[in-house]
Amino acid sequence: MFQDLLSKKKILSVTGLGYVGLPLALEFAKYFKVIGLDINAERVELMKQHIDPSKELDSSAFEDCDIEFTSNPMELKRAHFHIVGVPTDIDEHRVPDLKPLLGASRNIGKIIKKGDYVVFESTVYPGCTEDDCVPLIEVESNLKMGIDFKVGYSPERIVPGDKIRTFTKILKIVSGSDDEALDQIDKVYNQVLDNGTYRASSIKVAEAAKVIENTQRDINISLMNELAIIFDKIGIDTTEVINAAGSKWNFHKYTPGLVGGHCIGVDPYYLMHKSKQLGHDPQVIAAGRRVNNYIPHFIAKRLVQSLIDMGKNPGDCKVLVMGVTFKEDVSDIRNSKVADLIKEIKDYSIQVDVVDPHANSEEVHEEYGFHLADQIGSDYDAIVLAVGHQDYKKMNLVDFENISNGEPLLFDIKGVKDKKDFANYWKL
Question: Does 73 reside within a domain?
Answer without folding.
Answer: yes
